[in-house]
């Protein structure tokens, strides 16, 4: 009887926390190609994961996330910014996600995954960043320096937001580490490596940031790219999904010059925050149901993140200020 009870608990737990894998294959990117424009939604969606993307067609400029199936592991430089150093996705798959960071970037959860545990994901370097660290380039240094003794590093830090609050815990992963006393232990990641995110606990969405030992006048010299694949999320019981639904809003225009229009559905009050690429909050104000305005005329030209927080639920979108 005791064994049956344990089996029942295990089966129940499995049913209540079914898993979903975002492998980005559903986005139908053919080998050798990439997508840096998510269209009107500004989101690439796979499984229970949403990746924010901002694309400016005038300048063919993007930030946030792109989806790639490119395979070039030998060409250095910016023109090869969409390739993973692995030459493809996890376990020989075609497609993966590329993140290009200014300060920090988020990965949204959707549907039944919101408020649940993210089991983990796979990380690797982009070809652009890998070859830059390996050999140096016109802007960034060769890791280890001429002697090989420089204690260089390049790492991604992952934190969680839950109920509108940034968690204090984090998971760090070194994409390159030359801090060892024995230089033979120095490495630059060139394969897909699984990163366990369960220590973060329940998550509404994830925040990624990069740090490097190679710093210049304008910040990190190392190309601020990394690649992600097979993000595994845990579904919440369906009874709780309504509690974690994101705020229903519309925000426009994008790009914006003077005033951002924000329409908030429902009857609950909310708060809007506008942050720069370094994660610094520049504007915060309450929102009321219906139409609202956010004056951004005093902000410098650049890319910003809009976040609307309503009862612990979060809506996030990237905006360009002209």
List strands and helices in order, with pairings.
Layout: H1 2-16, E1 19-22, E2 34-35, E3 43-46, E4 49-56, E5 61-68, E6 96-100, E7 104-109, E8 116-124, H2 127-135, E9 153-162, E10 165-177, E11 187-188, E12 193-196, E13 202-203, E14 205-212, E15 215-216, E16 219-220, E17 225-234, H3 238-241, E18 249-252, E19 259-264, E20 270-275, E21 281-287, E22 290-295, E23 302-310, E24 313-321
Antiparallel strand pairs: 1-17, 2-5, 3-4, 4-5, 4-7, 5-6, 6-17, 7-14, 8-12, 8-13, 8-17, 9-10, 9-14, 10-11, 15-16, 18-19, 19-22, 20-21, 20-23, 23-24
- Overall strand count: 24
CATH superfamily of the largest domain: Protein of unknown function DUF4465
The shape, in one word, is globular
The average pLDDT score comes to 87
Describe the structure.
- The structure is a single chain.
- With 322 residues, the protein is mainly beta.
- The chain has 2 domains: 223 residues, Jelly Rolls, CATH 2.60.120.1350; 76 residues, Immunoglobulin-like (Sandwich).
- It has 3 helices and 24 strands.
- The protein has a 15-stranded antiparallel β-sheet that branches. It has a 4-stranded antiparallel β-sheet with strand order 21-20-23-24, with no helix packed on it. Strands 18-19-22 form a 3-stranded antiparallel β-sheet, with no helix packed on it.
- β4 and β5 form a beta hairpin.
- The chain is globular and about 60 Å long.
- The relative contact order is 0.16.
């Amino acid at each position: 009887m005791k064994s049956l009870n344990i089996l029942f608990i295990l089966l129940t737990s499995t049913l209540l926390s079914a898993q979903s894998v975002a492998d980005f294959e559903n986005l139908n990117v053919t080998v050798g190609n990439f997508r840096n424009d998510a269209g009107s939604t500004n989101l690439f969606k796979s499984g229970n994961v949403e990746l924010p993307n901002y694309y400016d067609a005038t300048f063919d400029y993007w930030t946030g996330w792109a989806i790639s199936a490119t395979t070039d592991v030998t060409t250095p430089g910016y023109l090869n910014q969409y390739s993973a150093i692995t030459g493809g996705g996890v376990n020989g798959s075609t497609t993966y996600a590329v993140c290009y960071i200014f300060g920090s970037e988020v990965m949204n959860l959707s549907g039944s995954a919101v408020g649940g545990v993210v089991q983990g994901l796979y990380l690797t370097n982009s070809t652009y960043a890998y070859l830059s660290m390996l050999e140096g380039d016109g802007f960034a240094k060769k890791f280890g320096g001429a002697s090989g003794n420089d204690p260089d590093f390049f790492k991604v830090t992952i934190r969680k937001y839950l109920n509108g609050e940034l968690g204090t815990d984090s998971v760090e992963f070194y994409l390159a580490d030359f801090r060892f006393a024995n230089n033979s232990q120095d490495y630059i990641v060139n394969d897909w490596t699984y990163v366990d995110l369960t220590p973060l606990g329940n998550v509404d969405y994830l925040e990624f940031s990069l740090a490097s030992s190679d710093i210049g006048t304008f910040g990190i010299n190392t190309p601020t790219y990394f690649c992600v694949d097979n993000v595994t999320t845990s579904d919440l019981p369906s009874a709780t999904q309504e509690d974690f639904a994101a705020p229903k809003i519309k925000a426009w225009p994008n790009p914006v010059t003077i005033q951002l229009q924000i329409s908030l559905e429902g009857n609950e009050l909310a708060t809007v925050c506008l942050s720069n690429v370094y994660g610094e909050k520049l504007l915060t104000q309450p929102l009321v149901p219906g139409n609202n305005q956010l004056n951004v005329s005093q902000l410098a030209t650049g890319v910003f993140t809009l976040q609307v927080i309503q009862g612990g639920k979060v809506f996030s979108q990237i905006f360009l200020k002209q």
